[in-house]
């Protein structure tokens, strides 16, 4: 009988921890989002859809090189640092940190050289010209700074320095806008590559500044024996995953480019960026705080199941109303954030929003595979996801236009969710809780209704239906969250917001 209150307290504490980290990450993400929107608006106005398409493709190239050459050192470092800290092995943690940082410098340098060396063929294959060779050579520096930043943020994330990570996020976003304004005004498309380099440099410098203040971070001048081999072994899976994920994103953009033109690639990038604005807060919170917490408890399958269900519940409640609001305001969002020229991206945005909702449901389960260190299973699921995503995009985009890319993304997470659930169910006994099943059904019906309204009703009637569903799901989520966590234990900013809208806390 005595275990009941203890379990309840543990659950309340876990929910409080999830909401606290989400609030911190969310606050920084709102600020970062504001400046990101300013930068996107500048791209849209000064460069137009075709210029935004070029930015998208160049950014995707950097992502692919970072994913391949980085060898997953940053992500495997997070796991090893979190595990060492959870076990109280500070000496090993310091050795891991030293190894991660040295390896990041070596790999970042190699990555920059590789991109510069392949600039000519990459430019010809992607843009059917050599106009972007100089830009790609310069972007080798962006690769270096991105990999160095991953090494520093691995330290912050592995030790769960959420506030410092939030500050890095804000500083990077502000710096990108401050630099972007004059560069784009004077150089237009010629500013794209220098801007990406400066943004990566600002991120690395900010992460480096805060990582130096972490206790135990600088006590070991030498890496732990055998640590590099362990990091690389774990990093192989992350490398393959990163390559497949970024490669798939690049491939889909290339499919859109080759089938529909550079302007359509700009529409795709616009819709993709807006679709990830709100739910990105939830995803960032998962990677920032949930992953290290899950890794620390990875030996206990019961604890793992509990943590995943709790994270899934909070994530769905936070993301659901925002996804429906994004679908409802899709046309307004792409017009305001970009320009009226981007109107064709609205219907694609609704498809991507549906996929993002499924992604929120699938991601916490996927972290089980990562935290357990099941490299082969992880790689297999990523290969399957890439084949599904790229294959469906190649089949649907030529027939249905850019909306086909959104349909492919939605179908990807239908399939991926089923695959991952079957794996974790059989491997460690994970099962979706009754509460989460009911939440999934509720939000599934609401999302489907909002989406269908824009397919079968006049625009203003569909907007009215979507607005009603947004309000309904928002109230449902609010009161559901207040039942999970005592109002007095909520973060002060959250209590202030609730009080300002008339909800007593």
TrEMBL record:
Pfam family, one: Polysacc_synt_3
Chief location bin: membrane
Keyword list, A-Z: Cell membrane, Membrane, Transmembrane, Transmembrane helix
Entries under InterPro entries matching the protein: Poly_Biosynth_Transport, WzxE
Subcellular location, record wording: Cell membrane
Organism from which the protein derives: Devosia crocina
Name this polypeptide is given: Polysaccharide transporter, PST family
Bilayer topology: Multi-pass membrane protein
Lineage: Bacteria, Pseudomonadati, Pseudomonadota, Alphaproteobacteria, Hyphomicrobiales
């Amino acid at each position: 009988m005595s275990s009941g209150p203890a379990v309840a307290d543990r659950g309340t504490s876990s929910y409080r921890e999830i909401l606290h980290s989400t609030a911190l990450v969310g606050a920084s993400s709102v600020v970062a989002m504001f400046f990101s929107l300013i930068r996107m608006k500048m791209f849209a106005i000064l460069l137009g859809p075709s210029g935004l398409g070029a930015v998208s493709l160049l950014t995707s190239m950097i992502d692919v090189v970072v994913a391949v050459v980085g060898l997953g050192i940053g992500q495997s470092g997070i796991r090893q640092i979190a595990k060492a800290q959870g076990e109280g092995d500070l000496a090993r943690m310091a050795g891991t940190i030293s190894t991660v940082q040295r390896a990041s410098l070596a790999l970042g340098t190699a990555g920059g050289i590789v991109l510069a060396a392949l600039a000519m063929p990459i430019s010809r294959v992607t843009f059917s010209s050599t106009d972007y060779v100089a830009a790609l050579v310069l972007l080798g520096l962006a690769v270096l700074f991105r990999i160095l930043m991953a090494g520093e943020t691995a330290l912050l994330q592995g030790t769960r320095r959420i506030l410092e990570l939030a500050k890095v996020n804000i500083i990077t976003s502000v710096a990108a806008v401050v630099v972007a304004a004059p560069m784009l005004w004077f150089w237009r498309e010629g500013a794209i590559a220098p801007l990406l380099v400066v943004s990566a440099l600002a991120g690395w410098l900010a992460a480096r500044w805060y990582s130096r203040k972490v206790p135990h971070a600088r006590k070991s001048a030498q890496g732990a024996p055998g640590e590099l081999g362990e990091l690389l072994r774990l990093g192989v899976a992350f490398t393959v995953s990163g390559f497949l994920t970024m490669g798939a994103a690049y491939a889909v953009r290339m499919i859109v480019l080759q089938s529909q033109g550079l302007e359509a690639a700009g529409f795709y990038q616009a819709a993709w960026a807006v679709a990830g604005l709100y739910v990105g807060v939830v995803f960032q919170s998962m990677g920032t705080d949930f992953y290290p917490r899950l890794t620390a408890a990875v030996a206990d399958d019961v604890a793992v199941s509990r943590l995943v269900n709790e994270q899934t519940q909070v994530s769905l409640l936070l993301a659901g109303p925002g996804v429906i609001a994004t679908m409802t305001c899709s046309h307004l969002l792409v017009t305001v954030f970009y320009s009226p020229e981007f109107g064709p991206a609205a219907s694609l945005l609704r498809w991507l929003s549906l996929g993002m909702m499924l992604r929120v449901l699938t991601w916490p389960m996927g972290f089980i595979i990562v935290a357990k260190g099941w490299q082969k299973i992880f790689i297999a699921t990523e290969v399957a996801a890439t084949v599904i995503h790229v294959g469906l995009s190649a089949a649907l985009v030529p027939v249905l236009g850019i909306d086909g890319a959104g349909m492919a993304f939605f179908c990807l997470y239908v399939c991926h969710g089923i695959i991952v659930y079957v794996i974790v169910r059989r491997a460690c006994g994970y099962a979706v809780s009754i509460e989460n099943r009911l939440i999934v059904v509720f939000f599934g019906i609401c999302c489907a209704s909002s989406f269908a309204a824009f397919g079968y009703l006049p625009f203003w009637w569909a907007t009215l239906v979507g607005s009603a569903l947004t309000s309904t799901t928002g109230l449902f989520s609010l009161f559901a969250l207040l039942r999970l966590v005592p109002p007095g234990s909520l973060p002060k900013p959250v209590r202030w917001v609730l009080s300002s809208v008339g909800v007593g806390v």
